[in-house]
Structures are given as C-alpha cells and as structure tokens.
Amino acid sequence: MADTPSFSKHKEARELKKQLRKLLKKQRLKAFREELVGDGNILVDLPSETITTQQRAQNMNDKIVDILKCLRE
To answer: Residue 42 in 3-state DSSP?
Structure first.
C-alpha cells in the first residue's frame, strides 16, 4: 500500500524532530564543555574517533605544548 500524503507528512515531521533532538543534544554538550573553561580549566578538544590511550595522551601533550608556546609569545 502506498503512503498517503498525510502519513508521509507525519513521517517527515518525526524525522525532522529526531534530527532537531540530536542537534540540541550536541549544542548542550558543547555548551557544557565551554562552561568548564570558564573555571580556568584548559579545554583540550580531542577527536571522537577510536584512538588508543597512548595516542590520546600524545594528542593532549601536543595540544598543551601548543597552548604553552602561545602563552610565551
């Protein structure tokens, strides 16, 4: 049975609401991370890809070195 126009609109609306919820969740997480920076903490944004703990530590060290270089200049 083919989708009726009404059913199609409801399906589309559900999909848009789902996308909106995902976007709002991302924005809340971003705002939370930025809020932590206000306390004087340094925010180190690492990629969300699956990486080993050694790679994560090296990336964090590299970011900290870059930040310290900027502060010296």
So the answer is: coil
Distance CA 56, CA 64 (A): 12
User: Number of structural domains, the chain?
Assistant: 2
Please check whether residues 48 and 61 belong to one and the same domain: yes
Taking the whole predicted model, whether its pTM rises above 0.70 is answered as: no
Q: How many CB atoms lie within 10 A of CB 15?
A: 10
Query: 33 near 43, Cβ under 8 Å?
Result: yes
Rounded CA separation 35/57 (Å): 23
Q: Is the pLDDT of residue 49 over 80?
A: no
